[in-house]
Amino acid sequence: MMTMAVRHVGKRCSSSMVVVRSASTRASNARVDTIHTERCQQLAATLGWNQCPAEGPAPLFSHWTSWQTHCPLTDTGLDGHPRRGGPYDLSIQVPDDWRRMFGGSVLLIGSKGAPRLGQRLSRESRIEDVVDKPHATAPLKLCTNVHEYRCTETQDLALVEKQTIIYIAPREGPPPPKAPRLPTPGAIQPKLDELCPTPTLLFRYSALTFNSHRIHYDLRYCQDVEGYDDLVVHGPLMATLLGKHARDLAPPNSRVSKFSWRALVPVLCSERITLHGGLVQGLDEGTIESRLYVQKEHGGMAVEATVQYSIE
Predict the structure, then answer these.
(1) CA distance linking residue 91 with residue 209, whole number of Å
(2) Whole-angstrom distance, CA of residue 196 vs CA of residue 148
(3) Per-residue pLDDT tens for 56-92?
(4) Is the dihedral of CA 113, 115, 120, 122 positive or negative?
(5) How far apart are CA 242 and CA 192, in angstroms?
């Protein structure tokens, strides 16, 4: 995999943050891979879904099981991620002791619908924005990585994903507790499912996505280095669960055209969660929305998502 040269140009946007924009070359990070049917079937088995068919549209966010880094262990950092600044890393330059997490993403699906099982796509990746943001307990950097996926045969745009990666400077002691964020009375949605994450679930999802971040499997590292009481559930795992329900909620003759999600607070292993969602008012005559969220049993929302459907 080729490294990507990035030139940053700072732009001040307010007294509390600085936006740093990249001028990278998209073609410098292009890769071709396949939406693998077997991995999607393994994903379905891991998440407790009915057997994934051998053909048809791929599950939402199943592309995370492809385009893996092939990063050798010698190129991983203390946290298990690819070493920052190395040939397998798409990130910004921050000190090694800064923590990183997947904060959320916006997934746009091309006009021809979601990629199909077995389809080959090319992906081009770039760093779009970096935002320096002061915080009460530690400075933050918000990095926007953009991934564009195109059909290798027609060059039609299949997916565009804008990921928010959060980098957090070291802090003194554990973070102060947050007040639970509950849905407003008018935004409460019906319960769709419930789940109590287990170490086995986290391990299998990490394996499917080639994610070696130690917070998902190394309890001592979680407790001693990152300050969590237990293993941490992947934000993308919960987004994938919501993605299935988003499709189940789709009105007749419609398809998911945009899925936006963000993580609000961590969910720990063995912490029971419930999944909620329902259709809401559409933006215009050609679209309709659903709102979904993951709620902790003894707390507020952990992940929230908004989904747009295009009526066909």
Answers:
(1) 18
(2) 34
(3) 999 999 999 999 988 899 989 889 988 877 777 777 8
(4) positive
(5) 10
d(CA 14, CA 36): 44
In this structure, what is the dihedral angle of CA atoms 106, 110, 112, 114, given to the nearest 10 degrees? -30
Nearest to 124 by CA among 35, 22, 25, 26: 26
CB 259 within 8 A of CB 290: no
| Residues forming a β-bridge with 271 | none
Burial of 124 (0-12, 13-18, 19+ CB in 10 A): middle
**Whether residue 9 has pLDDT greater than 70:** no
Q: Structure pTM? A: 0.88
Closest-CA residue to 293 (of 227, 252, 241): 241
Residues 6+ apart with CB under 8 A from 15: none
Place of tokens 């796509």: 121
Buried b (16+ CB within 10 A) or exposed e, 46-77: bbeeeebeeeebbbbbbbbbbbebebeeeebb
Residue of 66, 71, 1 whose CA lies nearest to 34:
66
Closest by CA to 109, choosing from 69, 160, 37, is 160
Lowest mean pLDDT of 25-34, 90-99, 109-118, 266-275, name the range. 25-34
